[in-house]
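**Sequence with structure:**
===
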Amino acid sequence: MSDAPRDPVHGSYHAFYGVVRTFCGVPLVTSRADVAAADAVVIGAPFDEGVSYRPGTRFGPQAVRTAEDINVTGDRPSMHAGIDPLKELSIVDWGDIDVIASDLPRSHALLTEAAGAALATDTVPVVIGGDHSLSHAMLAAMHGQFGADGYSVIHFDTHADTGEAEDGEPPHGTPFRAAIERGQLKGTNIFQIGLRGTWPGPKLFQWMREQGMQWATMDEVIDRGIADVVREAIDVARQAAPKTYLTVDIDVLDPA
């Protein structure tokens, strides 16, 4: 029997996970050694058991890969930077974590393992969800590699995701509070962008202030402009730690 660690990803196709197309047509890899040799690795996290509403995001990794692959028309330079990341960087696709539907703790553990394997070799993990409870797994991976002092967070979201799990808050609404309370993340090391709506309320905002968290509401983004807010977030992140976890919850762009 081989002593090599079992890989936490699964390359074959099943109903809602597995690779039909790779992200932007980049090479599909099947080993940790291939991941270690790359600059960045795409990892699918096809689970949605952590949501309170709108299930179905387990199909997200497939949908994103399909959309990106269909729209590839050769070179893909950034209009702003004038750089084609697919030419400048070695980017690979490791497939989807080997989820079992309805077993969210297993999915989180596998994602932590996969992301941690990439981080340990200085390969940047690019994770496609899935629901936003995936930040539980990613914060654990960042903490495991860099410690609470070694990384910062820039978080785009309608919601702060600092709810209390003991109050029945679904897992997708709790990762940042949970990480702070577990000692995995320093409150002063996170900047959130785009908060709006009715949650969190004053009591939870007060808790966030006490942790040293910083944020810009969507009203501030509209008043100041997104470029100014992002510059502030980057400044905070750089001053806090050498590494940054960037996470985007799609509802920051959702008009509903």
